[in-house]
Amino acid sequence: DCAALEDGNLCNGKLTCLQNTCQVAPATVVTCPASTDACKVAACTPATGKCGLVPATSGKPCDDATACTVNDTCDAGGTCKGFPKVCDDKNPCTADTCSPAAGCANPSLANGTPCDDGTACTQADACINAKCQGTFLNCNDQNPCTVDACDPAKGCTHAPALNGTGCNDGNACTGGDACQAGVCQGGPSVCQC
Question: Is the pTM value of this prediction over 0.85?
Answer without folding.
Answer: no
